[in-house]
């Protein structure tokens, strides 16, 4: 084991569980993965993802056996992830089921019915009243009937419900309110598709209401996932969102036959989620929030950033790469992270020692 550096705690814990050749192999891989101090990991990550990204195609991928479900892959999907879009163009949630409901299609369909959003307009028929101040609704659905009877304006006769209001405007307002009422299911789920995957039945839905889906009994909450990163962040937290960013980018690259070391993807995901939220890699996110005036100006909206910095008296600390390149001095990466200083008059005198400091 090399001297001069400390083995991280997590690595030490794994080493304790390994023996013999496994331990040696683990240490060998660990040593190979170590990064030289001062390595420009951000620049290397950008190059590693950006270069093969120019070879991506603009195609749409259909899930095997699920023609109705399509998600963008290639460059469009990478852009969605990097831009931290609030909702993906084609949201998709893969819902795994518990032991009781995953074995047969019939059991899976029970969960699919619980998931499908049911509104009053889906189970009741509207009928005009005798005048503009009233209207009628006909239904055999018990949930809808119970909802109708909760209104004081409602009078029931068998399966026919009459609503009498004081004015046409009130009648129109009440009718719109009643028709939009959700009686059950998960908001946003209009259709679901049951397919067999790896000896079990799963449900695909063109929606990303993860929080609502997780509440449905029979859903395996540990495996259910969506391609909507914001939903993952709001439901499961920032660590889950970070992992989702890594896995989603990796999935896109693998589909294109592009191999990129996962550590580059981890650097991107770490930077996007370091604030506890998901930041886009652009002027609305990471690039626009940099502390350096020159770095912000070099990316986009140059005049605006220069003018604002002059108005508010901003000072550029010159700690990043871009701003140091602009002014023509060594960047704080690689050998640029170290500065050697010598005391005046120290040259040629054996008694004096060279003062070496690292910054």
A few lines on this structure:
It is built from 15 helices and twelve strands. The chain has helices spanning 9-17, 20-33, 41-53, 75-82, 105-115, 120-123, 142-148, 168-179, 210-214, 229-236, 238-255, 262-273, 293-299, 302-312, 321-327, and strands at 60-63, 66-72, 93-95, 118-119, 124-128, 134-139, 154-157, 160-164, 182-184, 192-197, 200-205, 225-226. A hairpin with a 2-residue loop joins strand 7 and strand 8.
Q: Can you put this structure into words, describing what you see?
A:
This protein is α+β, with helices and mostly antiparallel strands. It has helices at about 10-15, 20-35, 40-55, 75-80, 105-115, 120-125, 140-150, 170-180, 210-215, 230-235, 240-255, 260-275, 295-300, 300-310, 320-325, and strands at about 60-65, 65-70, 95, 120, 125-130, 135-140, 155, 160-165, 180-185, 190-195, 200-205, 225. It has four domains: about 1-35, no CATH class; about 60-110 and about 190-270, no CATH class; about 120-185, Gyrase A, domain 2 (2-Layer Sandwich), CATH 3.30.1360.130; about 290-325, Orthogonal Bundle (DNA polymerase, domain 1), CATH 1.10.150. A hairpin with a 2-residue loop joins strand 10 (about 190-195) and strand 11. Residues about 350-359 have low confidence and may be disordered.
Search tags:
single chain, 359 residues, alpha+beta, Gyrase A, domain 2, 4 domains, four-stranded antiparallel beta sheet, 15 helices, elongated
């Amino acid at each position: 084991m090399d001297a001069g550096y400390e083995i991280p705690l997590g690595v030490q814990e794994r080493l304790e569980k390994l023996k013999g050749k496994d331990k040696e192999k683990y240490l060998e891989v660990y040593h190979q993965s170590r990064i030289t101090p001062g390595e420009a990991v951000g620049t290397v990550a950008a190059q590693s993802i950006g270069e093969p990204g120019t070879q991506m195609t603009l195609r749409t991928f259909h899930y095997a056996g699920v023609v109705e479900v399509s998600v963008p892959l290639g460059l469009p999907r990478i852009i969605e992830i990097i831009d931290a879009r609030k909702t993906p163009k084609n949201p998709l949630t893969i819902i795994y089921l518990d032991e009781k409901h995953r074995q047969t299609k019939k059991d899976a369909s029970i969960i699919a019915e619980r998931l499908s959003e049911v509104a009053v307009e889906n189970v009741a028929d509207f009928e005009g009243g005798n005048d503009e101040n009233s209207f009628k609704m006909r239904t055999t659905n018990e949930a809808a009937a119970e909802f109708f009877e909760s209104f004081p304006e409602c009078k029931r006769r068998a399966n026919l419900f009459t609503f009498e209001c004081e004015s046409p405007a009130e009648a129109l307002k009440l009718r719109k309110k009643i028709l939009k009422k959700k009686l059950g299911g998960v908001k946003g789920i209009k259709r679901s598709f049951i397919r067999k995957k790896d000896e079990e039945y799963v449900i695909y839905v063109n929606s990303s209401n993860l929080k609502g889906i997780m509440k449905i009994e029979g859903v395996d909450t540990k495996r259910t996932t969506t391609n909507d990163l914001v939903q993952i962040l709001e439901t499961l937290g920032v660590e889950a969102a970070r992992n989702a960013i890594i896995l989603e980018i990796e999935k896109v690259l693998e589909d294109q036959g592009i191999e990129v070391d996962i550590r580059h993807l981890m650097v991107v995901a770490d930077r996007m989620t370091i604030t506890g939220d998901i930041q886009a890699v652009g002027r609305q996110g990471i690039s626009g929030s940099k502390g350096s005036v020159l770095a912000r100006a070099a990316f986009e909206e140059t005049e605006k950033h220069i003018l604002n910095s002059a108005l508010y008296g901003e000072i550029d600390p010159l700690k990043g790469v871009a701003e140091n390149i602009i002014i023509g001095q060594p960047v704080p990466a690689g050998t640029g992270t170290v500065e050697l200083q010598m005391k005046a008059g120290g040259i040629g005198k054996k008694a004096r020692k060279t003062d070496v400091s690292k910054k």
